[in-house]
Amino acid sequence: MSMMKLGEVDASGRRSPVPTSETIDLECDSVIVAVGRGPNSFIGKLAGLKSGRKSGIAVDDSSMTSLPGVFAAGDVVTGETLVVEAMAKGRDAGQRIHEYLLGLETRHVSLYDCYFTRRTTGWYYRKMMDGKDEAPPPD
């Protein structure tokens, strides 16, 4: 694998990665490519997963695929989209996986909504800014 480093600042003020002459070898049993421009339908077909829109993997409301205990999120489900949307779906899928492993699927409450959205609205935001935030927001 080729090593990269950040190059010089360009006209937009950002530094882009550039290759170096250094390489490293990594031993691994398998590699999952998680960078791309959309879903690879081959993986879903190989595993026998149902297809969704845009050749993605179909999931239910809890991000579970047609194979029980197998979850998917992000671009592999929706097709190419904004990175923030993929991140939000990944965060939700992570919570759903946690609930699945602990047997809490029927008690789902969005932690993002509970701890971030509500905390930046109304009275709760004022309490937080006054340093009086000691408990989670009410349901």
Walk me through the structure.
- It is a single chain.
- 12% of the residues are buried.
- The radius of gyration is 20 Å and the shape is extended.
- It contains five helices and two strands; from the N terminus they run ββααααα.
- Helices cover 33% and strands 12% of the residues.
- The chain has helices spanning 41-47, 75-78, 83-102, 111-117, 122-129, and strands at residues 2-9, 15-23.
- By secondary structure, it is an alpha+beta fold.
- The protein has two domains: 2-108, no CATH class; 109-139, no CATH class.
- A hairpin with a 5-residue loop joins strand 1 (2-9) and strand 2 (15-23).
* Ends distance: 49 Å
Class by SSE composition: alpha+beta
- Average the pLDDT over all residues and give the rounded result: 79
What helical percentage do the residues reach? Answer: 25-40%
How do the SSEs run, as a string of H and E? EEHHHHH
**Annotation field: number of helices:** 5
| Radius of gyration, whole Å | 20 Å
Report the uncertain regions.
Answer: none
Q: How many separate domains?
A: 2
